[in-house]
Structures are given as C-alpha cells and as structure tokens.
C-alpha cells in the first residue's frame, strides 16, 4: 500500500476489490485520505437500503455509510475516503454541518480547474428517488455544478471519528441506474437521474491533485 503525505494528512492508496475497500479500517486515530481504485463495475448500496432487488450482471456491495446507491465504474469516478478523528479541529458534532468543510475543499479544487461549484448547506433533499440512488438527491456538504450534483458525500461515525466517503462523477448514466434498480416509471426516473447528476469534464489525476492541495 503506497503511502505519502498531503500537508498533515496521511495519504494511502489501498488495493483490493470494492467490497474490501469498503471494509472498516479500525479506530480512527489520525487524519487519513484513502484514494480508492475501482477494479470492476459495482453497485454500492447504502447501509439503510434493504429489500433492494438489483438486476443481474453487476457486483453488489453494501457500504457502512448511509444514502442511496452509487454506481462505480473504472475510470468514471474519483473515489476518496477522508478520515477525521474525534477531537480534531475539523470534527463537528452536528452531523448536518460536519461535511460542509469537505464540500468546500471539493469546490475549491474544482475552481482551480475552471469549474464553478456550489456546496449544498441546506437539509437533505432526497426527491422522489434519492433514497434509492445517491445522485438523485442532494445532502449537506455535497457539491453541485450547474445545478447538478457532481460530488456525493456520505459518512460513517463512531466513537473514534468520522469516515467521509466521497464520489466525484467523471461519467454518468442515469438510465443504467434505472435499469439496475428497477425504478418505475422508467422514463420519468431516467430523466430525473440524468438531469440530477452532472459528470465532470476533468481527469481524475488533476482533480485529485487539486483536492489534496486544498485540504486544511
């Protein structure tokens, strides 16, 4: 596992399947950034999603953080986990405010690449399909470009700290999500998912570099 540092953050690039990369990392004792590579197309369900029947032909994994399903495809998402220990100056007891700073980091990174982005600071707005598909709704700290969600953020908190899981879209197919999740009515759901999410016209390397440069 190659390691490095970005300011006072430890940077790691873990290897393994999507399921392995979602496994618990143990007590959070330091600031840590995990840059995860997607090895195969995988549909990741939120911790509270139960009774979901997924169409065959794709790996399915359940993460420990909340929210709707996220479709991970190699080369179509920059997946970064950010871990903050409890008691750190970045720690925020208010769950609804705890992701604001992280959203600002993503927005600043996108600004460096010439993209105007806005951090959602309001309450969760799931819409009709947000409970099923992450990018169909918007939550606190998530990032929108041109009114479309481009960076999703979920979190898992325990006694030691918080693990924020970030997905920056580099490619997107709302209609594929509709097929996998069996959403109906098909046309309406497909239009909602296509119009609600926005793939970023950037490469993952420069975006990651800018993201790391703006970490507090």
Radius of gyration in whole Å, from Cα? 16 Å
Number of helices: 5
Globally, the shape reads: globular
Looking across the biggest beta sheet, what order are the strands in? 1-2-3-7-11-10-9-8
**Regions with pLDDT < 50 over 5+ consecutive residues?**
none
Corresponding CATH architecture: 2-Layer Sandwich
Count all strands and give the number.
Answer: 11
Descriptive overview:
With 216 residues, this protein is α+β, with helices and mostly antiparallel strands. The protein has a single domain (3-214), classed as Bira Bifunctional Protein, Domain 2 (BirA Bifunctional Protein, domain 2, 2-Layer Sandwich). 22% of the residues lie in helices and 26% in strands. The protein has 5 helices and 11 strands; from the N terminus they run E-E-H-E-E-E-E-E-H-E-E-E-E-H-H-H. Strands 1-2-3-7-11-10-9-8 form an 8-stranded mixed sheet, covered by helices on one side. A hairpin with a 2-residue loop joins strand 9 and strand 10 (148-157). Helix 2 (100-112) packs across helix 5 (204-214) and helix 3 (174-181) crosses helix 4. It starts with a strand and ends with a helix.
Summary, kept brief:
The chain has a single domain (3-214), classed as Bira Bifunctional Protein, Domain 2 (BirA Bifunctional Protein, domain 2).
Brief descriptors of the model:
about 220 residues; 8-stranded mixed β-sheet; alpha+beta; BirA Bifunctional Protein, domain 2; 3-stranded mixed β-sheet
